[in-house]
Amino acid sequence: MWLLVMFDLPVKSKEQRTRANQYRNLLKDRGFDMVQLSVYCKYYLNGNSSERDIGILKQNVPVNGYVRVLKVADQQWASTLLFKGPRQKKAEAPPEQLTIF
């Protein structure tokens, strides 16, 4: 399962820009990858493991910020269309599960 986080945060004042950057850094620190400037994603082996991150992200939304979190199944993610200019590219595959013995 993928978690897709999309946000629109106020950045008119220096303090707002600082809070927006802190939110982006929080996403990176939690293991999210940037898809676009205000869109981040993270892969989870199961849906339950995403709940902790959702709670942390919810608690840290800046005042007057808008954040949308979307849970996307592997099959849905694999069927997304990705374009670079007019050319279509293949979407990223889910990461391989790490096995430690």
Automatic annotation (TrEMBL):
Function comment: CRISPR (clustered regularly interspaced short palindromic repeat), is an adaptive immune system that provides protection against mobile genetic elements (viruses, transposable elements and conjugative plasmids). CRISPR clusters contain sequences complementary to antecedent mobile elements and target invading nucleic acids. CRISPR clusters are transcribed and processed into CRISPR RNA (crRNA). Functions as a ssRNA-specific endoribonuclease. Involved in the integration of spacer DNA into the CRISPR cassette.
A Gene Ontology molecular function term of the record: RNA endonuclease activity
Signal peptide segment: none
A Pfam family of this chain: CRISPR_Cas2
Cofactor(s) essential for the protein: Mg(2+)
HAMAP family hit by this protein: Cas2 (MF_01471)
GO biological-process terms attached to the record: defense response to virus; maintenance of CRISPR repeat elements
List of residues binding Mg(2+): 8
Lineage: Bacteria, Bacillati, Actinomycetota, Actinomycetes, Micrococcales
InterPro entries linked: CRISPR_associated_Cas2, Virulence_VapD/CRISPR_Cas2
Quaternary structure, from the entry: Homodimer, forms a heterotetramer with a Cas1 homodimer.
UniProt keyword annotation of Magnesium present: yes
Enzyme Commission designation: 3.1.-.-
Family label: Belongs to the CRISPR-associated endoribonuclease Cas2 protein family.
Record's protein name: CRISPR-associated endoribonuclease Cas2
Keywords annotated in UniProt: Antiviral defense, Endonuclease, Hydrolase, Magnesium, Metal-binding, Nuclease
